[in-house]
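Table S5 (text form). Sequence records supplied for joint modeling of the two-component complex.
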Amino acid sequence: MDKFRMIFQFLQSNQESFMNGICGIMALASAQMYSAFDFNCPCLPRYNLAYGLGILLVPPFILLLLGFVLNNNVSMLAEEWRRPQGQRGKDPAVLRYMFCSMAQRAMIAPAVWVSVTLLDGKCITCAFCTSVPVETLGNASHPGLSQGEMKRVLARIPCKEIYDGQELIANEVAIRYLRCISQALGWCFVLLMTMLAFLVRSLRPCFTQAAFLKSRYWSHYIDIERKLFDETCAEHARSFAKVCIQQFFEGMSTDLAAAHRHPPRKAPADAGEAAEKLLGIIDQGTMNTALKSWHRCKPPLHLHPPALPSGNGWAGEEQPPVHPPVPRREMAAYYSRV
Amino acid sequence: MDRFRMIFQYFQSNSESVMNGICGLLALASVKIYTCFDFSCPCLPWYNMAYGLGIMFVPPITLFVCGLILNRQSLVMLEEWRRPQGHRKKDLAVIRYMCFSIMQRAMVAPVVWIVVTLLDGKCLICAFSGSVDPEKFVGFANIGPVQVQQLLAKVPCKDDELMRNNTSRKAVSRYLRCWSQALGWSILLILIVAVFLARWLRPCFNQATLLQARHWSNYIDIEQKIFEETCCEHSRLFAHKCILHFFKSMRQEIKLHSFSLPRQGEGAEGGEDLLWGITDQDQVNKLLKMWYYEKPPLDISRVTQR
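The corresponding structure-token record, covering 644 residues in total, follows.
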């Protein structure tokens, strides 16, 4: 059990840092994705808004979902939420704690994308170039342009090569104006997010510290219990398989000996370990038969009890079917030791 | 216990260095963000001041709050401040010490941002280009007030068509940058002198109180870490016992209700001990189903009392 203890202590103490690491990697990935992305404003009146806002809002949503998917604890939360109550009560505070801590980590990459997008300015410039205040920044009295025509001209602001409204409003002036607004929005967004994170972290010790300690303990417990159960089942499966295969080989060797009408060859008492491991199969024909039998007719998932000393070498009788046991009434207490 | 001791000694000696490391990283990050940030002055009369001063002051506030969030000790301090008194008195000097040391570390990144901004000069040029006296510069003298404001607002934009070949623009730019850099270096000098004096003169005042406050603030920090570690250890043991109890109760149920051949006793189980008497596909399925539908209660008092 020492090995388990080491592994679980490592996982436990590092579970938080592991999740923080994934969170940081996703944030960096989102910044990198943005810089690698080739932003191409369509420069058409209604398409601009759709494209700009789409690039601003759709990738963060995808990153949020990805953040939930990559988090190992999502399945744990779902399992705990959906399990039948049985003998152990469910504590909604624990579920809330688990969900909140996952949501906090998943929100970081989308927030980074939105901040980087706003601070860069291209999206807002593309989306809102038709709403530039031409009266204050340019010559609104420029003759001969209907509303639709003006919108078409303004929509080409982000595309410097095809912009033809220099008399209406200078291209650089409009872009500078829009970028200034975008960057101001970006910094305000970053400040708001940081303040929110600060409030969430600092209000907790002021109001709900005891409940928080309880929820944290039991959510860690559920995680550890699940891992430990999986490990125990894996150990059981390993032993089960070992005994099953051992019994298969023994059964095979006994069968063949019975077919050839001589007693099964038992390894002599003073033989080495290697002879024991041969399990009575010591010639090519027997081995081939064993391999064929393994493929054609795998043994049932049912282990025989160890052979009795009365000499009946072949403990091959089927066990009588196990009756489904009556569930025992145990105490149904959600017993917290915190 | 040896391993625990090693881990906690590491935490003790490195709690300060971890926090100093984070502080340094934030300062580097602030310089990096400033260099990556694409500063573009709007070059419009009222917007310049708002933009310039905004870029100079809003990111430092964000960095300061970030510094508070990333510092683990701020949570420890808040918990200590808000906890009910109980059996342990609260020492305000310790809380003050912790608060002070947290603030000191959180202020490094904002100061770095402000100093870098001033030394670079773009922010001040953008914010105050409309506030210079136009009479001092040949190209802007003798122009109507409204127009001169418009022109001065365009000084930070080198590529603007009006400003491209304007020599007075360069003069205004140099003038403002000179002021900006002077301000930047002065602030840096004042801060360093203040820090120097604070470190050298501190031992002259209340050294004993300081030592006590530092000791007890370290203690509170370590006590919380050890409490968390002990809770983890306890929950691991709890889970271990709970699962063992579950498997044992399954084995007992199977023994109770099956008609298997009598076993040779516990001794013969040897290497099959890990099978818990579960030797059948149906029994395994039943165990897994029980685990999902009826998790055992969180009560191992019967197991531990044996």
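Note: Residues 125 and 174 of chain B are 9 Å apart (CA to CA).
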